[in-house]
Design brief:
Layout lengths: L1 E3 L5 H5 L5 E6 L5 E6 L2 E3 L2 E6 L1 H9 L2 E6 L7 E12 L7 E14 L1 H4 L1
Antiparallel strand pairs: 1-8, 2-3, 2-6, 4-5, 5-8, 6-7, 7-8
């Protein structure tokens, strides 16, 4: 079971959850998952990005964000979005700027019984 989350309400769902996962894919289709702290910059999510994440976003900007449930009764928060790389420094590290396109709260498998 999924519950749609309005994009304007994302901050209230993301902020209390702490670190989440940013999932990117490379040109070869392999997924890359990294745990990061997300911030809001207006309606855009922003997260630190390492070299692999930056490389993947540059070749495939469609990403997924995931926050697992905190308890068996909680829901997973899943966000689809389009990412861009911003503020890359001389060491190849920067930030992912993510415009959310769709978000849901998805039932926890443990709660499904």
């Amino acid at each position: 079971m999924s519950i749609k989350v309005e994009l304007g309400d994302l901050a209230e769902h993301v902020s209390p959850r702490g670190a989440g996962y940013l999932v990117t894919t490379g040109a070869d289709g392999r997924p890359h998952t990294t745990q990061v702290m997300f911030e809001f910059d207006g309606s855009t999510l922003r997260a630190p990005a390492g070299r692999k994440t930056i490389h993947n976003i540059e070749s495939q900007p469609l990403v997924a964000l995931l926050w697992p449930p905190a308890s068996a009764e909680d829901y997973n928060l899943i966000i689809d979005g389009t990412a861009a790389v911003v503020d890359v420094n001389g060491e190849g590290l920067g930030y992912a700027s993510i415009e959310a396109t769709h978000a849901i709260l998805h039932r926890n498998a443990e709660a499904a019984g």
